[in-house]
Design the sequence.
RNA sequence: GGACCGUUAGCGUAGCCUGGUUUAACGCGUCUCCCUGUCACGGAGAAGAUCGCGGGUUCGAAUCCCGCACGGUCCGCCA
């Protein structure tokens, strides 16, 4: 009796031994008097051979179809001369099967799994995402994503950062993107919001004295999607105390250079150190604040990182007739002259930076204002009344009155970066269960209606379901 | 909120512009039979489509027109 199931990648070292393998039928090649099955597990393929000597076993093998799940026992044999397949890792061996157990049958899949999936329509791929994820391409993308995240955690740990979780149920904020909101059961008529980013929490962690925080953070924004944008996404959220803008940029540069060198050694950098380009220069020279600096845009292995710095603090919103923050209101102005901030907002630069790779914005951050009087001046420029500021951000201002270190951070998006590393054209390809363009999950069929009882508990009434 | 592209057997496409010799074609897959060395096995045959949904024009609509749904790309939006 063979105790332990082994994986495809271990088989080659066990010629002559009896082994137990389990996995999915990848391909069946039935020659009438000999049947080959490619067995697929999470690490690769192994060829199984069935011969008609054992009639009962052979009959059973005849019934096998793609995507059935089976458990087999048999002897690992070196393949006969001339029968070696150099295209697969286990091409020099095969399993002479002695015992076959069918663990699970499978319907014919709705689409071919042995392709990269790029020909299949998106709605079918999303509806049958668990089958789509069986593809080599998607599997590899998720493995790459895992490697990137593991590397970040390890690397930042060595740099004395600690990972801290912040709430998913939080408070709606007036600035920025539209919030996803969650009704409160215990407080009728009140709502939580899902975080657009852990922005305020990480600043409060700096007040708390942690100095170096990071989090692999899920963020939510109820805005329309794009090829590089999903309603929920993951960012490396990071905040530090007492560090300068250049120290933060240098940290990120070292982290990303190390990620690429260790995880995608085939990639090469267009330029190191990553250039720091002012917003003004980027707009004048490239006409965009996320320039694609690659020398050969057809080279899949070229990575052109850069930082865009010195953004203007404010931009004029003509339709609303008011100044708005280019980045967000907590960005520290490069001027500490309160009169100047109020009088000439158009002249004020912010300690704000974007992280750009191959024409994609893959992150943004800033040094934060930690002097309450400057934060109030910024809000004033944006047309906020003192009472509104107290109401919306009073907790932050109060926290800043108890000893706040100068602090700043950055939040590089993980999905977009992995998409670039994987050479994928769309962010969906690096997210296990992405949503459609209008924010729906075609597999789970979400959003969906809820029971009358649930609505009642939440003190909600649906007035109209018209769009 | 807006613009554009797409929707034809299980999957991917052709046919649409120029309506009628189309009994809607092709490749893959599925099913049956044959096949002892394949590795995207091969060979023979079969089944499988109210042409996304609704309405209109017409003697006649997959084909032309309108509306809707679904999917995608982009603009707005995304502190």
Sequence:
């Amino acid at each position: 009796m063979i105790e332990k199931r082994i994986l495809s990648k271990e088989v080659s070292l066990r010629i002559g031994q009896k082994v137990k393998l389990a996995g999915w039928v990848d391909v069946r090649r039935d020659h009438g008097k000999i049947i080959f099955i490619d067995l697929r597990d999470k690490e690769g393929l192994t060829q199984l051979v069935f011969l008609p000597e054992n009639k009962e076993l052979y009959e059973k093998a005849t019934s096998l179809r793609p995507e059935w799940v089976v458990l087999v026992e048999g002897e690992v044999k070196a393949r006969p001369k001339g029968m070696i397949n150099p295209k697969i890792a286990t091409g020099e061996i095969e399993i002479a099967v002695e015992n076959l157990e069918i663990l699970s049958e499978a319907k014919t899949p709705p689409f071919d799994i042995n392709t990269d999936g790029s020909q299949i329509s998106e709605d079918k791929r999303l509806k049958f995402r668990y089958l789509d994820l069986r593809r080599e391409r998607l599997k590899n993308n998720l493995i790459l994503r895992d490697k990137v995240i593991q590397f970040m955690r390890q690397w930042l740990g060595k740099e004395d950062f600690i990972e801290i979780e912040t709430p998913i149920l939080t408070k709606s904020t007036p600035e920025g993107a539209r919030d996803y909101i969650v009704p409160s059961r215990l407080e009728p008529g009140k709502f939580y919001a899902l975080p657009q980013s852990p922005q305020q929490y990480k600043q409060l962690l700096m007040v708390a004295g942690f100095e170096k925080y990071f989090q692999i953070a899920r963020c939510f924004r109820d805005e329309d999607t794009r090829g590089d944008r999903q309603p929920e996404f993951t960012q490396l959220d990071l905040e530090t105390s007492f560090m300068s803008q250049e120290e933060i940029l240098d940290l990120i540069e070292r982290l990303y250079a190390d990620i690429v060198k260790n995880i995608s050694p085939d990639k090469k950098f267009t330029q190191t150190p990553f250039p720091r380009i002012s917003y003004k220069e980027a707009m004048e020279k490239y006409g965009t604040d996320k320039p694609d600096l690659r020398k050969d845009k057809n080279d899949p292995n070229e990575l052109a990182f850069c930082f865009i710095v010195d953004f203007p603090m404010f931009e004029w919103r003509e339709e609303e007739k008011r100044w708005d923050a280019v980045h967000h209101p907590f960005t520290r102005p490069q001027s500490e002259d309160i009169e100047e901030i109020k009088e000439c907002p158009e002249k004020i630069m912010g300690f704000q930076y974007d992280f750009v790779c191959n024409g994609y914005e893959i992150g943004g951050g800033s040094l934060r204002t930690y002097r309450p009087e400057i934060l109030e001046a910024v809000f004033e420029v944006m047309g906020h009344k003192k009472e509104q500021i107290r109401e919306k951000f009073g907790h932050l201002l109060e926290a800043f009155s108890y000893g706040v270190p100068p602090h700043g951070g950055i939040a590089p998006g993980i999905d977009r970066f992995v998409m670039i590393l994987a050479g994928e054209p769309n962010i969906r390809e690096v997210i296990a269960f992405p949503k459609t363009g209008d924010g729906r999950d075609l597999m789970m069929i979400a959003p969906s209606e809820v029971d009358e009882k649930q609505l009642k508990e939440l003190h909600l009434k649906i007035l109209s379901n018209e769009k």
